[in-house]
Amino acid sequence: MQLKGRPAVVRRGLIAASCALLGSSGARGQEAVTSGGGAETDGGQIDWLFDSALAYYHENGRVQAIEPVVNIRIDDGVGESINFNLTYDSLSGSSPNGALPSNKPQTFASPSGKSLSAAPHTYTSASGQTSVESAPIYTTSPGQLPVDPKYHDQRLAVGGSWQMPWSRLTRASIGGKVSYEHDFLSLAANASIAHDFNQKNTTLSLGINGEGDAVRPIGGAPLPASDYALFEKTGTKSKNGAGMLLGLTQVMNRRWLSELNLSVDRFTGYLNDPYKIISVIDTIGDTTGYLYEKRPDERTRKSVYLENRVAWSRASAALSLRYMTDDWQIHSDTAQFRVRWWTAGHDQYWEPTVRWYRQTAADFYTPWISSAATPTLLYASADARLGAFNALTYGLKYAFKLEDALDQPGSEFSVRLEYYQQTFFDKMPAPAALQGLDLYPGLRAILLQVGFSY
Amino acid sequence: MNRRRLRRLLIVGSALVASGCSSLGVKPWQRDILAREDMQLDSESLDNAIDDHLYFSKEASSGGRSFAGGGCGCN
Fold it and tell me: With contact defined as beta carbons under 8 Å apart, do A367 and A387 qualify?
């Protein structure tokens, strides 16, 4: 199948590896499918692909986010391509600070460089006007989950990659990404190489990546396991990581494609969430204070990922399975199943998705700390993301092609809705004073996304 | 396991994979279905990127399909 189009017009068609959206995937075995007889662009012709989406994310009573994403791909038609992508996130709402609910009111300070006990300050501007700024304190009502009610953040991420042919059967890719938040900066780079075998039915790929992050929390990075009330903060911290991914892609038959990835990565440095604290409770469960969390300063993760795709005349299905483990003793299993049904005219499709996820808790995860145990505390975190939970995602996408209307092959408009829910297990028995409180509230969220490709 | 045994294991394993894979696959003129957009491993790249960012910020695991890093102060 050869896709025809005018010079310098967009042809989405069967372009592979547009996953460089994250600037991290690099050369993959997918080329084995398309280059052997699928769509190929005309040599010497520059093609552009514009892919965009706007996502709205909302959690029950917590954070909401708006995320526009743009991806642009420029393809020279002879195997060389450049990707550029831009992502912006705007988050606002209430974010859990890690502390437990209590039957008494609890008072906390938002991270702003002032301690919990800071008194209001009077400021005088250059024009002579004075203002009084109170300490950013918030109070959580009895029975409520402590959340910072004025959480807000913006993220801007820019990435790019360059894929080039190395030989007739080999191609290489390099990429990079910069992600900026007002309290976080990440720089990442990657390189990969892929080689085809067996009449381009088999592809082996190898990729490496490196990442350097600067953690610059508002008010400074807290000293791990320090007393929340003492305000021991030490400025900017860093963490660094490196990873490797080995991939095998195999065309099984005319309708079936399979991919197997093995990956390992290792991060070192300040791996704490600087805004998360842990409640310290006495024997009956009354809160006596709070500590900042303390995680190990290194983490190694390994994963196996298997994806299979099968197609019929008006449908296709994709099943992906992942097992991941790390030296924090977190083990996770993920299964995702997606089916796409085309209408008779092949100009619209429906795509339901279901995803199941389960993780065990990190060996240092604890929803609270007993005041008797604090002197011997080695590592501890009450961050629910390190707890044991199941998660389910249900999604539905509808898309219709705009090729005829816009005279651009591959043009598409889509709407996608997802529902995500976390349910915790392996719960610790609650002390008397915490009985009846929802210590594991879980999470429910929806995602609405509109997309446009051109 | 010494280095020689590991090398033998790798050679035998590679030979098994290579022989297994060589009996699979299609001829170049049989790629019409495989060439469809929905059969490309990255055809949902934008959806996956948005989902992965959500899961990255709410779960302890990430990556697998591609590299797990990429920057986000949320986890």
Answer: yes
> How large is the greatest C-alpha to C-alpha distance in chain B, in angstroms?
48
Q: For A204-241, write each residue's pLDDT tens digit.
A: 999 999 999 999 988 889 999 999 988 888 889 999 99
Where residue A274 sits, what CATH number does that domain have?
Answer: 2.40.160.40
Domain, as residue range, for A210: 14-453
What is the average per-residue pLDDT within A261-288?
Answer: 93
Q: Look at B61 and A322 and tell me if their CB atoms are within 8 Å.
A: yes
Residue type present at position A193: I
The alpha carbons of chain B give a radius of gyration, in whole angstroms, of 19
Q: Is residue A5 part of a domain?
A: no
Nearest to A209 among B36, B69, B73 (CB): B69
- Indicate whether A314 belongs to any domain: yes
- For residue A31, pLDDT over 50 is answered with no
Q: Answer left, alpha or beta for residue A79, where phi above 0 means left and psi between -120 and 50 means alpha.
A: left
A24 domain residue, yes or no: yes
User: How many structural domains compose chain A?
Assistant: 1
Q: Is residue B69 less than 8 Å (CB to CB) from chain A? A: yes
Distance from CA of A447 to the nearest CA of B (A): 9
ipTM reported for the complex, 2 dp: 0.85
**What is the three-class DSSP state of A87?**
strand
Q: Are B42 and A397 in contact (CB < 8 Å)?
A: no
- What does pTM read for this prediction? 0.85
